[in-house]
Design goal:
The protein has a domain at 62-333 and 455-472: TIM Barrel. It is built from 15 helices and 15 strands. A ten-stranded mixed sheet has the order 9-8-7-6-5-4-10-11-12-13. A three-stranded antiparallel sheet has the order 1-2-3. The termini are far apart. It is an alpha/beta fold. One of its GO terms (biological process) is molybdopterin cofactor biosynthetic process.
């Protein structure tokens, strides 16, 4: 009997099988050593999923979507206080290099619109208490560069604290250039979770992150980040973006030398619907990959020797591959109760992004073609249901036989939907599948070299991050 899955091999030569419908990995040798195991596997409920399992053609009602949002959504209200920015980053989604995104402009949200957004979020949180009493409201400030409207942020924060009786968290992602002493004192006093965008070492940062006049920005940003560190007493969270000109060996050295910074996220320049990568050649990628491989080997040795620091840049780069590979949820159920059947898309309303005009969107990364409400009327559950049903209908037809359909990271950001078809380039899907199994091979190779490391990394990293956030509060 042929297994319903796809095989992969680790660096040691060990063979494994990923069973896509059950979402688990098994040793090929362990299965083949006992032939009856194949038969037993095939008898497990959910081993081979059908359209009935996925409930592919179900149409969700607005009431069902509302119930899901009340139970599991409303995680965050992201407020676009301004669309203006004092930087002109080469890879910015508003740079003109991305389809279906706005261009740089200079609109500001007025205080009335902000207060209405907060009021509506409060009403939704209160309505949802009977379904989820443990939810902590979160407001995040977004731009443009949100600190362009620092005065508005202060008013919003004071209003939200009073509205929610101080039971609320505040976050902000900033380019760091406008963090003067007054701003830093405000962040510390109000216990903000601050994330500063720093693309690592000076040359890499300045190459893409310039101000509106084309000047480099690294020196002022790193100086302000250091001031924030000294005031808040905990390392500063950073967000890093890389492209094929980034040298990962130098990135590791930078973060090692600047241990007052902790890399919270590492992301490639958004590769979807953009002309950004047109400038690169095969040789460009090969040079990038060579440096990445050097750091990967260093990481592998540190794991074997039990010396890998969970907060190190290379641990964040490669450790997350391991944890995401081992934290998949095994599925032996007879029915898929997920509302979004395939891919990594969320249910609209999981978070709310409100733009300068007061319109609600799925999130800040999704184009402005899908409006799901506004500050006057709140969430439009009928519209949310339409989005879910159309997405499911199109994606199920396109992706139901894909081996990574239950672990694909694509969502509304990278999947273009027309009325009657879905646009996903075949080459892009092929690469995503190849990358997924390369990650599985890497993760299981790390597991073979030190079985205890992945669990230790996961617990130590998140314990450290949680401790920092508790201290900030």
């Amino acid at each position: 009997m042929k297994l319903n899955g796809k095989e992969f091999t680790t660096k040691s030569g060990a063979e494994y099988v990923y069973l896509s419908d059950m979402n688990i990995v098994l040793s090929k040798n362990a299965i083949e050593a006992y032939p009856q195991r194949r038969e037993l596997l095939s008898q497990i409920p959910g081993y081979k999923k059908t359209n009935e399992y996925y409930d592919c053609y179900r149409e969700y009602t607005p009431e069902e979507i509302k119930l899901e949002i009340m139970k599991n959504g409303l995680c965050e209200l992201a407020i676009e206080v301004t669309s203006a920015c004092n930087f002109r980053c080469e890879y910015c989604v508003y740079s003109g290099k991305y389809e279906n995104q706005r261009l740089h402009d200079y609109q500001n949200m007025d205080v009335t619109t902000v207060f209405k957004a907060i009021d509506k979020y409060y009403e939704l949180i209160e309505e949802g208490i009977e379904y989820n009493s443990d939810r902590t409201p979160v407001i995040s400030y977004y731009g443009g560069e949100p600190l362009v409207k620092f005065d508005l942020i202060k008013k919003c924060t004071e209003y939200a604290k009073e509205k929610f009786d101080n039971n609320i968290l505040f976050t902000i992602t900033t380019n760091g250039s406008l963090m003067n002493d007054d701003v830093i004192d405000f962040f510390v006093n109000e216990k903000f979770n601050v994330v500063v965008s720093i693309d690592g070492y000076k040359e890499n940062h300045n190459r893409n992150r310039k101000d509106v006049k084309g000047n480099p920005t690294f020196d002022s940003v790193i100086e302000n980040a250091r001031k924030l560190f000294l005031k808040q007493g905990t390392p500063v969270f950073t967000s890093v973006v890389f492209d094929y000109d980034t040298d990962f060996v130098l990135m590791e050295k930078f973060f090692r030398d600047n241990d007052f910074l902790v890399c919270l996220s590492i992301n490639s320049v958004n590769p979807y619907s953009t002309t950004y990568f047109d400038k690169y050649t095969v040789d460009s990628y090969d040079r990038f990959k060579a440096k990445l491989d050097i750091l990967m080997k260093e990481f592998e040795l540190s794991v074997v020797d039990n010396e890998a620091n969970p907060l190190a840049f290379m641990s964040r780069t490669f450790g997350d591959i391991c944890t995401s590979s081992f934290m998949r949820q095994c599925d032996i159920s007879k029915k898929n109760n997920k509302i979004i059947k395939h891919t990594g898309a969320c249910v609209p309303g999981n978070k709310i992004f409100v733009d300068v005009n007061g319109d609600f969107y799925i999130c800040e990364k999704v184009g402005r073609s899908i409006v799901i409400g506004n500050v006057e009327e709140g969430i439009n559950y009928e519209k949310c249901a339409q989005v879910v049903n159309r997405y499911n209908n199109l994606v199920v037809h396109k992706c139901r036989n894909c081996v990574i359909r239950n672990n694909c990271k694509r969502c509304y950001v990278s999947i273009d939907m027309d009325e009657n078809k879905i646009n996903i380039p075949a080459e892009s899907c092929k690469k995503q599948i190849e990358d997924y199994f390369a990650d599985l091979s890497f993760a299981y190779s790390i597991f073979e070299s030190n079985p205890k490391w992945i669990g230790r990394y996961f617990s130590e990293y998140y314990d450290a991050i949680n401790d920092m956030m508790v201290m900030l509060r």
